Amino acid sequence: MPTFTDELWDSISHIHKAILDHPFLTGLTDGTLPEAAFRHYVLQDAHYLIDYARALAVLAGRAPDADLIVQFAQDAAGAILAERSLHAGFIGDFGLTAAQAAAVPVLPTTRAYTSYILSVVHQGSFADAVAAVLPCYWIYARVGTELLQSSSPNPLYARWIDVYGGPEFQAVVANVLALVDRLGPELTAADRDRFTEHVVMTSRYEWMFWDAAWRGEQWPAELAAR
Question: Is pTM beyond 0.70 here?
Answer without folding.
Answer: yes
